[in-house]
């Protein structure tokens, strides 16, 4: 056909037009536009009215005839009681003068909350009393610690420091702090005007908010979590209609068959639909985010939502990124579910339980005082809401953030793959119920490998389950070490050994081709052996390097604290390991993990991906990255990312190059054994100064020799003959 | 042009296995209209879907210009225009947008698509409503858009599954006239229809399907000779009577004149 475009398969432009057509069809539908525009326009103002008029009557302080009282407790440090009394009476005098003059100096906030007053608690003048405890016990609303500088031998007068203390969880306490701060600043201002110079009467003011978890628990709702929850629910709402319309709706209208009858891959059609749904979800998310920000700004709810005077743009960008991720996850999930339906009604019937399922964890996330840990970090919705809350309130931590993101990415991939299995299948198009069951049904004939879908599903399951188990184990840190090691080994065996083995039996997956349990050449075996014993300096070097890089990037106090904690924790763990015989440590840290991880990652997972991959290097790198991420999770340490990923890539390459998972197992067992041995016997090694004295660098000779051995190993691997095609297996499995 | 060899397809319905298509074979040449006829549930639609590669056959195969639909489905799809019984249109798009989109999907250049749309609007008389939103079109107009959509890439083969479903007499007549016109343009056409009079008028050869099997096949003359009946309608009635004789009397009475009712397979 002369009218055809050149490069039929170069479908990027066509894909773009396919997605545009889906999007055009969706956006012309007024029902989409209603959800998109009207909802944010209505929901947020309505919500803010409810917050203001109903939930926060006590906290927002609507003007009343009665003055609001803040009970302020004072503590003083540094000076004598007499010094404090003099300072305090001057302060009261100034305040009274300000109040009598009706103070133009007072800031808008103070004017807004007028009439208000501070009543000082009775035992205000004691030095060293615990102001924070008084606030926690409800004896005071806000505290002030006054630090009086020693006046003797002082050439330059030093200002008095006043630190206000308030309970972050209580808006009453926070408002009291604002009130006091504004008053004190007004005092500063008036003193400056009277004397014309900064002198020792100037007050240096600082603030400290503490989080009182018990008090936070007494709050019925936490608005920091309510807003992200509404944001994510609205985003889902935006995606619901287009996902039904573009799948079940299209089938019902009879246009899907015409599309399937065209020479385009089903996956491309599905991904175009995914892009359209995702775009609508993102538009909804954007409009909702804007609606929320405008409402927060208009109704002055910044303190409630962000716990700050104004939202941070970085935080908003981060939350938007998180919404993008969630929009992707829900778009693929919705497409998977609606692809199952044959009509609009059926799709709606399927979605109601899904939405309810999504709401249940969301309600849990509203409970105050929750933090992202344990199972909360891997349950969709809860983890999003908690992470978004932490981002908004500036208390987000890197580790939990990474886990939430990784989990959600994995879930999205699984959902999209499920959608691709279901979308446009005979069962859905032509009414037979059988095909969907095929995705979970036991196949009639033997399979060469697991399906990529099953591989992703198992990966997501292991990721979540392992995280929950490890968190659970961390709580049992007082457990006897042998028992702890036994449990750790058992978990590894269960997740990476028994689970894939069970799946293989059920899915009739061939052990040899499905797990790469193939024969391998002698050269390959020697290569693995050499690399196994000689790669440890490289690993140590990469760990040091990634720690250095992380230190460059993470010069924050929190990052340094985390780093110190990790180092200390690592040292403590090694000490505990030394209470157990080395054989036991070797079994649980080298043999079992190495064999099982290779069995799963390079066997079950990688073989499944290699089945359909056109470019093996992509699978090799992807398997390496997944391996690295899992190690970050299991060690709770980000410095494991680079070394474990690189090791994962190497192991994947070894498996692909040799055609067998066994050389990788040899390499992995030896490498782990050497590394754990060096840690276990580090005192003895230090004594004989085999690796050089103390923390100094390794001796050059040793380093050179070991590097040569590793290089020789790699060279042997390259020289080893390429894997022969296992004709018996291929013939048996008809591939 | 179209070769169908021993196609078989079964569906599972609960614990029962239904043979939707059972050893169906036929061939269609260019400039030939082949009538695939039979009562509801005879297996016509399933056969069409297998020819196009939308359904996998249990055994046997179908090929278009030498490309097997189970091996090269995209090559087959490129060569086929398909109008199914329940084909709809994108309600929020105009016919011009729909045709442009499908032209693009079939790999045509934009200028070629424009030219093709003007040809088709002349051929099928769709010009007046090309830029109207599809939701505002009548059933007949929509069916013509579907025909145009199936023709946008000028395929050598047309598979028409009940293209006149839901149309009145005039609407049906227009579609049948177009089919004859397409045949004159050297296209190989398979037509499934319940309008037996029209089929008798425009089809060159027939296959009468019943419960998944071809009961009679050949030209009208051959069929008349084989069955001893003048008209396709009478041949059909005989077929239905035969299947009613197999039913219990009470069920046959309830079933009324038509057999099946499970929808097309």
**Overall geometric form of chain B:** globular
Give the termini separation of chain B.
24 Å
Helical residue percent band of chain A: 55-70%
Main sheet: strand order of chain B: 6-7-8-3-9-10
**On the 0-100 scale, what is the average pLDDT of chain A?**
76
What structural category characterises the helix and strand content of chain A? mainly alpha
Fold and architecture overview:
- The complex is a heterodimer of chains A (735) and B (265).
- Chain A contains 30 helices and 5 strands.
- Chain A has 735 residues and is mainly alpha-helical.
- In chain A, helix 3 packs across helix 6, helix 13 packs across helix 14 and helix 24 runs antiparallel to helix 25.
- Chain A is flat.
- Chain B is α/β, with parallel strands linked by helices and 265 residues long.
- Chain B is 40% helix and 25% strand.
- Chain B is built from 10 helices and 10 strands.
- In chain B, the strands form 2 sheets. Chain B has a 6-stranded mixed β-sheet with strand order 6-7-8-3-9-10, with helices on both faces.
- In chain B, a hairpin with a 2-residue loop joins strand 9 and strand 10.
- The longest helix of chain B has 16 residues.
- The two termini of chain B are 24 Å apart.
- The C terminus of chain B is likely disordered.
